[in-house]
Amino acid sequence: MAFVELRQITYAVAVAETGSFTRAAHRCFVVQSALSHQIARLEEELGARLFERGSRGVQVTAAGEAFLGPARDALAAIERARGEVAAEGSQVRGRLSIGTITPLVAVDLPELLAVYRERYPAVQVTLRARLVRDLLHEVREHACDIAFVDTASLSRGLTGRVLAHEDLAAIVPRGHPLAGEARTTPSRLAEEDMVDMPPGSGIRKHNDAAFEAAGATRTVAFEADTIALLEQLVARGLGVGLVPAGAARGMSTVASVAMTGVPRRTVQAVWSASGSSPAARAFLQLLHERVA
């Protein structure tokens, strides 16, 4: 029977997630030679190569993919166990990884994080912005504890809480013919070049579906990976956009126009259905307190 050490599992997951032995060693606070040695021992114990090292970097093998799912589950279970033990000592400890889409206007995430840190200073919190498809994958793989996403449907293994149903608004350059209109439609916007978030984002999927349902064929001339860049591109006259109305209200360089014929966008917090750590449960409790 293969004897696998916890640190070997940790190192293997780090290599897979960073795509590099050097970055994995930096993340795990060990020298690269020590990390490489432990990965080699792990592969020897398992009797299979987990990674292929080549000129194009580190690639996960088929055996590696088979190993990584249970490995992440094991690390998540250990982290939860550590948190449960710490919670018995009346102080919540451990790590909390949060992922979010951009823009997120349904909740004041910076305020939530500030209150959380004040209440639970012993918890190490990380926050990363990702595309919704990546966030859902990370929650399923236990690489992220809680994610804020803009999708109405969740796959098996995930649970969530709907936070808001948001209206969308068109944004156009100041002086644009639509700037003086009270409302507009997908068909009218489709007459213009458009700026949108990239494929894989929840709002892009939502917008694509809205134009398809309206029978309107549009041209996305520019893609922006942040709402700030999207606003700048529209302000420079490179296209028009369709964004959450709450985000549009905060934009000072473009004009916003209400939409008809576009369904509302669902925003929710999601986490693993298999259970959460004390640190994650404490954050969800805070979210319940602060968001009606």
UniProtKB/TrEMBL annotation:
It holds the Pfam family HTH_1. Keywords: DNA-binding, Transcription, Transcription regulation. The keyword Nuclease does not apply. The keyword Transcription applies. Residues 4-61 form the HTH lysR-type domain. Belongs to the LysR transcriptional regulatory family. This is LysR family transcriptional regulator. It comes from Saccharopolyspora taberi.
